Amino acid sequence: MKLHRFHDANLFYRKVKDYLSEEELLHNLQLGICNNLINNPKISKIQPYLSVVEQDGNIIAVAIMTAPYNLLLSRIKNFAAIDIIALDLQQQYESLTNVNAPVIESQAFAEKWCLLTKSSYKLKLPLRIFKLDKVELVSQAKGNFRIATQNDKELLKSWHDAFNLEALGSIESDSESWVERVLHKGNAYLWQDEKPVSIACSSRSTPNGIGINMVYTPPEYRKRGYAGACVAALSQTLLDKGYKFCFLFTDLSNPTSNKIYQEIGYKAVADWNNYAFY
C-alpha cells in the first residue's frame, strides 16, 4: 500500500477519473474540484493537496484539499489507507479545519486525525446527496424565473453572506469574488415576485451532471413556495442544456428543504458528514 502525491491537477485527474467516476454522484465534489483546478489553475493560491493510495496497483482511496477548505475523501476500499493519508497530512499541515466525506470514511478519518494530533472533533453538518433526472413538480408560486445580472450584484452579496451565516454559522468565503464569479459564468438565478425573493445557483459539473447550490430565501419571503419554484426552474433549465441529471447536497437537520427537493423530484443517493476539528 503506497501513497502518491500529485502537484499537477491534470496528471492527478487522469489518474483518478475512472475511480471517482465509478460513483459519480458520491464523488461529485472531487470531480468538480478537479475540473476547476484544471480549467482555473490560479483559483487556488496555495498548492492543493492531491493524493492517491494504491494497493497492488489499484486505487483504494483519493484525498483532495484546496486549503483553507475542507479535506475531501473518496469512498475508501481499505481503511488502512486512512492511516497513511492522516500521517501524510500531519507532515504537511499544522492543522486541519474539517473533513468532508461519506459517513463511515469521515468518522474513521476524524478519529484517526484526533488520535494523531491530540485534537477533538464534532459533527458540523450531516449531509445528503440528492439526484434529479426529471422535474416531477412545477411550482405554482407567484412570480417568474430569471438569470441574475450585474444590477443584482449588491443583493447577491447580501444574500451570500446571509446564507453562509445561517447554513454554516460563519462567512467562509469572500462575497465580492463569489458574486463576480457567478455573474461572469451566468450561474446565479433568481425567482422574482415583483422583486427578487429567492436564489439558486448552478455549480460544479461532473462528466454527466451538474450541481445546484446556494439555495436561499430571506426569512420574510419564506413559506410561499419561492425556493421550490426557483430550484425546479433551474433544474429544468440545466436538464434542457443537456445534462443528464442535477444533484445537490442538503442539510439533514433542515427537514423543510429536504421535503421541498423531494417534491420536485430529487431522490436520495448517499449521506456525507462534515466534521470540524478543534
Give the overall shape: globular
Return the CATH class of the largest domain: Alpha Beta
Calculate Rg over CA atoms. 19 Å
CATH fold-level name of the largest domain: Aminopeptidase
Work out the count of structural domains.
Answer: 2
Mean pLDDT: 95
Measured as a percent range, the helix fraction is 25-40%
Approximate strand percentage: 25-35%
CATH architecture of the largest domain: 3-Layer(aba) Sandwich
Distance between the termini: 30 Å
Trace the largest sheet across and list its strands. Answer: 1-2-3-4-5-12-6-11-10-9-8-7
Structural class: alpha+beta
The count of helical stretches stands at 8
Major beta sheet summary:
12 strands, mixed
Order of helices and strands: EHHEEEHEHEEHHEEEHEHE
Spans of at least 5 consecutive residues with low confidence: none
Superfamily at the CATH H level of the largest domain? Answer: Gcn5-related N-acetyltransferase (GNAT)
Structure characterization notes:
This protein is of the alpha+beta class and 278 residues long. It has 2 domains: 2-119, Aminopeptidase (3-Layer(aba) Sandwich); 131-270, Gcn5-related N-acetyltransferase (GNAT) (Aminopeptidase). 38% of the residues lie in helices and 31% in strands. The protein is built from 8 helices and 12 strands. It has helices at residues 9-21, 28-39, 80-92, 103-117, 153-168, 175-185, 226-240, 255-264, and strands spanning 2-6, 49-55, 58-65, 71-73, 98-102, 121-132, 144-147, 188-193, 195-205, 209-216, 245-251, 267-277. Strands 1-2-3-4-5-12-6-11-10-9-8-7 form a 12-stranded mixed sheet, sandwiched between helices. The longest helix is centred in the middle third of the chain and has 16 residues, at 153-168. The chain is globular and about 60 Å long. The mean pLDDT is 95.
